[in-house]
Amino acid sequence: MEPGATRGLGTVSDESPVFGASDQDTEDAISDPATSLVDTYEDWQRRLADAFLYPHDGPTVFFVDDSGLARLTRAEESARNLAAAVRSRLRLTAGRSMFDRLLMAYRRWQHGPKTEPPPVLPVIAVSVLAATRMRSDNVARSTNYYVRLAQTILPGGGDAELEALRRNLEERGAFLTVVEMWVGLHRWIEDQHGAVGTSTIPEVPYPSRIGYPLSQALVRQSDRASLTRLFHALHLSPDDLPVPETLLCTLDIWAEDARNRFSETFMGALADPQMRSLLGSVVVAHARAWDGKVLTSEGKQRIAVKLGIDLGTWQTRWLFPVPEEGPRMLILSGQGEEQEVSLNAVEGREYYTDQGAPAVTFEGVHSGLQLRGGEFAAVFPPSAVVFFCPDPQTGAWSSTSGLVPFEEHVVAVSSQHATDFRRMLEEAAAEGWRRLPQRRSFLLEGYDLFEKVRFFDGQALRDVLSRLPGLRAIGAVAEVVPRAKLVHGLPVDGSISTSRYLRGGAPDLLVPFGSEHRIVTVTLDGRSDRIAANGFPLPIRSFIDGTGRHVVQVEGQELSFTTVNEGSDPAPPAGTGSFGWTSSGQMSVSNQGVTIIGALVPESDDDVATVLGRRGRDESWLLRDDGRAEMVAEPPQPRFLSSIDISFFSPVFEIRADASARWLAQRRGPLWRLTEIGPANPKQYDVEIDLQNAWRRACSDANAAQLWKMRMRMAGDGA
């Protein structure tokens, strides 16, 4: 946790100036209203213990920078105040022995009960503060830690004083005492068995001495929040932690996406060959300490909001997923907004029902949405492009974190990028996509909408994105996969295993990919091959036959699955076939007059077809083969939906069509959607036409019939 983010922080009592500081230090403190009260070493020890070593789960990070100290004390000169408190216990001219007074106190603590943290926290804080100030200027290069430490301990010191202090710290070995203090703090945190969190101090850092303070300065609170999202995407568990090298390669790929960027300090360490190893050990320490929660930069548990879109009702809405083991009820509010959003969980539903949720606007999508509560925050990230997939929970479409190969998408692209995105579709997408007009009313203002978007060719997609880097920058890429995983397939026995698949329905392998062309070696049951990592899955079922256990190895990971001829229990799954609908449209158990269970409809009439019509149309008609048109009324939603506390909308309704019906015609605005009745794969056409007159003529006149067919061909298949 960063200072200021916890309870009881920043309490400054009425203290006297630092004892043992120079006269000039004391005079400066008294003359400056912001630091007229200078705290003692003991004050800082207590304050830092309260800020960092309080009871909590998850990682304990001793990150201290200038802004954090200011929040901790609510004073502008907090860093000078801290430095003065530390100097009061030092003999700056004693060379290697400058920390002896503090070392003696530390030794006494070691021989005591050690119920309190070691009395070294102000020194630890100063050493981390110096690490956060590492940058290049006319005094020192960014890598010269000891210059920054000397400046932090002795702010305002002359060149000669600072150089002498640097030599004592670096060349004469005074800093070794600070290293011993770091080791003692790490061991004390570990000895608390999680009561004050889990230590992120490396056992053996590199660089060997300054690696201790650097390890705490590399990862800011915003970085820690980003890491929790990565760990969640990796499905990490304490028993399955990657080695540092693997985790660093994963970070390289993860951070390429602009939505997953870390702080400048973090990214600099990731790219620095000297700092990269230290960063790897620090990130592994964070992974080991992770408690399974995804956090925001404010330390609140994150609810990843989705954007829902319904093309049938022409509506959008925010969707709030229920977190694992999350609360049944939440109250959230936007920044500066008085209106509250009430979220309530419903058994069996993945989303909260909401009351008072804000409307979907251009600003909310393009700039992002944040709603905050006490311990939770609902977040939708800024998005210039949004990919939507079918959502079985809503019966419509909901946003995903990127395009999913082979799956059908609706895509919303900000209008400024629409031209480039259309070029991407023309060059890399499968045929059949089209732009959705928003003439009558905007479904998503400021965005162009495309439907029936599918991608099958990974190389074509990579080629076009290399020529249009702006699309990659906004996230118009495949969903980031930070770790190899098995996807798709035909799983069985899901209640007892997650790795059993039907023979012939083996899963696909998806491997991590980045912006650079990458070839990886995949080993399947002892046979190796090299494949391109491009975000598109490898169909494993093409390479195996028969049943049994199969092992996939890729980039240090081992994944296994088993193919079987059938599930372990051939009987119908428990609970199926027990509920259905009565003839009056009410849900009931199977022994109480149920006439429809699932798709089984007793006494069905082979001469009558069932056609699905879209709700929300201006009018609907059945066109019969004798030229007549019969209006179809849209029925109300099923009555049972009003008896349960679920916000649900069925986008279609059933229409009974006898053998004389040839077309279902539905109008929205000036456009008619015509759907063939009868064929297994019916064609659909979107046309502007005088419907009833044109159909009446088509059924009575051969020339008019040809004209009808010509109009359909010109319209093209709208399916």
Automatic annotation (TrEMBL):
Identify the taxonomic lineage of the organism of origin: Bacteria, Bacillati, Actinomycetota, Actinomycetes, Micrococcales
- This chain belongs to the protein called Uncharacterized protein
* Region Disordered: start-end pairs: 1-29
Q: Which organism is it from?
A: Arthrobacter parietis
